[in-house]
TrEMBL record:
It is a multi-pass membrane protein. The keyword Transmembrane applies. It comes from Streptomyces hainanensis. Keywords: Membrane, Transmembrane, Transmembrane helix. This is MFS transporter. InterPro entries: MFS (IPR011701), MFS_dom (IPR020846), MFS_trans_sf (IPR036259). It is found in: Cell membrane. Residues 212-394 form the Major facilitator superfamily (MFS) profile domain. One of its GO terms (cellular component) is plasma membrane. The lineage of its organism: Bacteria, Bacillati, Actinomycetota, Actinomycetes, Kitasatosporales. The keyword Transmembrane applies. It comes from the Bacteria. GO terms for molecular function: transmembrane transporter activity.
Amino acid sequence: MRGYLDVLHIPDLRVPLAATVLGALPLGILGLGVLLYAHELTGSLAVGGLAAAAFGLGNAAGVVAQGRLIDRHGPARVLAPTGAACAACGVVLVAAAPAVARPGFVLAVSAGMGLGIPATVASMRVLLAETIPVPESRTAGYALLAVLFHLAVLTGPLVASLLVVLVGPGGAVVTGGLLAGGAGLLFARTRASRNWRPRPASPREAGRRGAGLAVLLLINAGTGISGGVVAVAVPAAALELGTAADSGPLIAMSSAGEIVAGLSLGARRWRWSAARLLLASLTASAVAVALTAWAAGSLPLLFPALFLVGLCTGPCAVASSALLDTLAPRAGLTRAYTLMVSFFLVGAAIGNAVGGGLTEHLGHRGALALAACLLAALLAAGVSLRRALEPPAR
């Protein structure tokens, strides 16, 4: 636990970490809240699903745009206005949508809320790189950030469910927007955020490391597709082997595995390079998902199998984040991180889209087997292109 203590003992990082958790909560709250509010407003679950998709795609585009702006102007000048825009969109959606009564308006404002979610996680990632001088402690910081993010995203839908009971779907949307606005303002007002200064760009450095970053983006998009297929296949397995209510606990087991992996990774010092850790995680993930395909004939076996999947996939995010320290130019670190996140999100959306068809035609076990094959293909690509992932030191 020494690495975690080293991170938490840095005074300038404590409030930004808290703001990061606060900024991640609205992702889970609004994803569910927007869906339920659009359904309540229109009576159509299809429109609700489209509204949630619009929010997700807006978030994917927003993190990339904010990453570029943060690299140029710093988080203090970006996060506060974007968070305020998200909060304003939430109020507009709930106040004006009943009068407008058009699904297109709901979709547009939902996308606007996604665009405005402040990129607190990306900003925190850059602050960790700038503030922590020891590489081992930085890795612990990245692991801590991953754990806090997973906890916030896991908690978000639970908070949304409570808010729906207390104040209805519209109240959940407004609350999520206000939390996003507060998180952006809190992060922007921290000393570390206000003291951050952009670094001058170095075209030579960017060109030298561009190939490795492209490989990393490819791997993250591929893992997103695989994860998206798994996210559809698991509820299908629950419906066939048990009930729809089993879907939540099954998915929670995978998230729990990711959290345990992140905590374990940051609690000890690793001698492996980030590239080696990433490839090892891909290897273990392919095996774990293949085992899940085998175990998916029994509901009791699915629970430990999915925990193992989370345990094996968790290090991928930490290793990918650590690789950016060598693959991305310092002047574009925030943009590189947000681009990586966006590739994963788009990949997950593609996986969700094709996962339904795969599950219908091949069954949930066949879909899981294909997800494992995709991870194996990514591993083969990563091994063959490993030199690009390990450029000369800065």
